[in-house]
């Protein structure tokens, strides 16, 4: 298949677990597999694919936006596969996923501590172990600002 020919479509064929895929391109009745591997790095770069996954199924078809889409070629998809598969991009993707998980777990822990604190007769725990009444909100805001300022100074 000529790498500069405009493709009819490209197809992500997913495994039953939807963790791995094969990327197959079609042009004029010719079919060629250009990539296989983890599916998640592709998903993180293609919003359309994220939307299609929620619909279910084990294949996702990519069509050119119109017949004059000269850029929708095998060469373009090969460059995209190389980009998504580079170690730096994969490492970045893994790091972002780890950070998202940390933020989500931190958010859940904070939500749990806030709900526990609010059920404890209107008091809220502070970082230094002292419990303050919610009615002291002006003082509490000052303490929080002081803690934030000290953290910013120490990071410099």
UniProtKB/TrEMBL annotation:
It comes from the Eukaryota. This is COP1-interacting protein 7.
């Amino acid at each position: 298949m000529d790498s500069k020919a405009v493709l009819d479509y490209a197809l992500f064929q997913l495994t039953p677990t939807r963790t791995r895929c094969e990327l197959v391109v079609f042009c004029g009745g010719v079919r060629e597999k250009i990539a296989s591997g983890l599916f998640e790095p592709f998903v993180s770069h293609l919003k359309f694919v994220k939307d299609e996954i929620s619909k279910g199924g084990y294949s996702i078809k990519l069509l050119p936006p119109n017949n004059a889409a000269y850029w929708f070629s095998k060469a373009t998809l090969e460059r995209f596969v190389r980009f998504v598969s580079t170690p730096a991009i994969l490492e970045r993707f893994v790091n972002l996923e780890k950070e998202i998980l940390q933020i989500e777990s931190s958010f859940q822990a904070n939500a749990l501590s806030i709900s526990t604190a609010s059920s404890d007769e209107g008091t809220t725990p502070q970082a230094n172990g002292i419990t303050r009444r919610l009615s002291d909100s002006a003082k509490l805001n000052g303490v929080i600002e002081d803690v934030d300022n000290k953290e910013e100074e120490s990071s410099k």
